[in-house]
Write a structure and sequence with these properties.
This protein has about 450 residues and is an alpha/beta fold. It has helices at about 1-30, 60-85, 135-145, 165-170, 175-180, 195-200, 210-215, 235-240, 265-270, 290-295, 305-320, 325-335, 360-365, 385-395, 405-415, 425-450; strands at about 125-130, 150-160, 180-185, 220-225, 230, 250-255, 280-285, 295, 305, 340-345, 370-375. β1 (about 125-130), α3 (about 135-145) and β2 form a beta-alpha-beta unit. It is elongated.
Amino acid sequence: MKLYCKLVALLLCLGVLLLLSLFVGSADEPPPKGAGGARSLPVSSGPGGRAHPLLAHFPPVQAAAAAAAEEGAAAAAAAAQISKREPRLSRNPGKRSPARGKFANVRPGEQKHLKELPSLQWMHLAVVACGDRLEETLIMLKSAVLFSYRKLKFHIFAEDSLKPEFEKKLREWPSSYSKKFEYSVYPIAFSVGNAQEWKKLFKPCAAQRLFLPVILKDVDSLLYVDTDVLFLRPIDDIWSFLKEFNSTQLAAMAPEHEIPKIGWYSRFARHPYYGTTGVNSGVMLMNLTRIRNTQFKNSMIPTGLMWEEMLYPLYQKYKNYITWGDQDLLNIIFYFNPECLYVFPCQWNYRPDHCMYGSNCKGAEEEGISVLHGNRGVYHDDKQPTFKALYEVIRDFPFEDNLFQSLYYPLQSKFLDTVHTLCGRIPQVFLKQIEKTMKKVYENRVIVHVGANYRY
């Protein structure tokens, strides 16, 4: 009888162990593909239900949003899981751990989906607006605020009549965005030479950029852009080029053209210019401290001249030979001081010239456009509808709306109407970087805010 009871007990133990092993094994198996999760909806199709051939270049917006949502959900779950853990007791209860901050109690490897907010170093952005450039300037500033992480200081140089308009419009922006920037509006002013002469150089007030190192004496570094620029990725990324400057470089610009034989300077310029194609000053990153402290070689006197004292004599010497105003003067300066210039890749100042004769910006083909420069007035006519589409979509985007649904998807739709142009045939160049940027913004908003709700 005792032997029988022992056998029964042994069999029961084996049965329980077998059931446990089966239960654990089934729990470890991944769920079958297609079960659960967000389903991506089909993209709009052409006649007869067939997909438009151009859509091969467009990642479906729902799929992109779903992918971002899945990443955000996974990170949020990780944050919640970490928060539920009991805090580890310090071996020295009377002393605080030297590790402080959001991830002080998170073990290595547990925070791989959680991103700390970047340091709150200010980034300075300058623009000059005269005449009818109010709307363009506001859309440019809007693109800067939409995608950037660190706080921004806007330095807006404008005619007196535009100052109240800027203040009114910027006050209307929602607090979730207005808290990301501060701004100052300055009058148009030229410290040397004839003010009216400077003001009429090339375009109204454009020469103001030459005087930024003189006026903004308390600013160390600055990004200047024309009013017709749009940021398709965070300003933080172009700002990081300041760290790439060597000991002599004090400004950065992109080439005017990628192919010398069809570039303007290489064919028509009657004055010295930088490199083989010249540089475009519509996007110009500057270390103002270095500019103020440097003596520049020049063609007027054997010794060097400081920035401010060089500007007007340089203009007087070349004013009958320049076409593009202040940009030509900058080309002349860096022709004589090439060691002072850092050259951006073309995707950081992408203009119609990079695609209207055929795609010739390799960096944009590989990485997408980082900064769009709609010169030639292309935002306001129908000559380059791809550029106009981007401008209108950012202009019409409501600040608080979903980026994918209210910006990316309308952009895809508008691009379908641009395939008759050479620029419209390469939509991936225009969409690649902005899609990546929107995913990062989404992750930052969802993951950081979810993580901030938990105490570690």
